[in-house]
Amino acid sequence: MESATTSERRPATLRLVRAALHGPRLSFDQFRAERRIREIDGLRAVAILFVIAGHMRDPMWGNVPGTGVPIFFVNSGFLITLLLLREHSERSRIDWESFYVRRAFRLLPVYFFALFMFSGLVMAGFAENPGRWWQRFVYFLTFQNEFASGATFGHTWTLAVQEKFYLAWPLVAFALIAPVFERARLCFAVSLAAAMTAAWIIWPSNYSVVFIPLVLGCILALLMFKARSYRLVTQLARPGVFLLLLVGAILVKALIEVPGTVEVPFSYAVVLLMPGLIVGPRWVSRILRSRPLVALGTWAYSMYLLHPLVRSAVDIVISPGQSVIPLEILRYALVVAGTAAFSFVTYRLIEKPCIGIGARFTERRAAERSVEKAEKVMVTP
Predict the structure, then answer these.
(1) What are the φ and ψ backbone dihedral angles of 38, each rounded to 5 degrees?
(2) Which stretches are annotated as coiled coil (predicted)?
């Protein structure tokens, strides 16, 4: 009887071992062929849910602040670099005009909608903590939000950091470095991350710290875009390795308290998790590709901008800081649901139409340049 039981257990044990050692869900060619990685949308949703929880001002979310920003930043650095790599690989160049026009139509309309909505609440006397609003308003207009303090609309400091990065990184990595030596992009990014991390160790509050998770995301994209390094990096996506890294990331977040604007150790933990989140176990993919998370990820930008408004409304009905877990969960659920509904409307009425306008503009400009190029070829003797 004992030997039979042992023999029955052995195949199950072998299946678990094989599952733990299984390779990435996508081959390198499949990953390169993916036009839209839905897991990225799911990760945006996870990040915004953490951001909202961190802003709830309830005791049960005490260790959550600082969780969403590294996820957002690593995700953003990875995605923007991957898009640039794909365009450069397909066309051997980057259409800079189209790139920045698309970013402008994607980000600016909703941003200014939110900014003027907050300004209206300040003028009406409904803002919680406006500070010297009109002095701070100048920072918001010029995307210097990180210098505008943490009062009303101060949560948008992360957007200002990302915008500066989106301006600088593509030009440096693809316009200045790539024409000289393509592999230098990776060397530059690794050196930059190392220098910023060393600066964080010496001076935790220095400004460069906020860019570390963005650069880490860029490094991951550069590694995953090459066949050899893809095979190496995706060893982290094996189910058993991924689970160990997930537990490690939770422990890093829970046990390590570090100074600085961005939690650097947790940022490194997030970038190690990313291969598993993107091309790892199928159960992870199914979660991140689920309709609710993809929908929240699609609306995440509007949710990020507008959630303090919904939270302030919920605070009137259920005041924060009551240390009653059911009430804290209810408050969070109301804020998430209200923000999602508000953001769905904003996405459909403002964000999505403006994205479409930007796409049509860039397509028309590309067509005009093609015609101009053809005409020049025709008249060339």
Answers:
(1) -65, -25
(2) none
Look over the chain and give the mean of its residue pLDDT values, rounded to a whole number: 87
pTM: 0.89
Q: What is the pLDDT of residues 125-150, one digit of tens each?
A: 887 788 889 899 999 999 999 898 77
Is 15 inside a domain boundary?
Answer: no
Instruction: Please tell me the total count of domains within the chain.
Output: 1
Residue, of 240 and 372, whose pLDDT is higher? 240
The string over 307-334, giving b where at least 16 C-beta atoms fall within 10 Å of a residue's C-beta and e elsewhere, is bbbbbeebbeeeeeeeeeeeebeebbeb
Q: Is residue 5 part of a domain?
A: no
- Cα–Cα dist 104/223, whole Å: 28
Q: Is residue 369 part of a domain?
A: yes
Distance in Å from the first CA to the final CA of the chain: 91
Q: Which two tokens stand for residue 55?
A: 């802003």
Maximum Cα–Cα distance across the chain: 91
Q: Which domain holds residue 180?
A: 26-379
Single-letter amino acid code for the residue at 166:
Y
Helices (H) and strands (E) in the chain, counts: 17, 0
User: Residue 343 falls within a domain, yes or no?
Assistant: yes
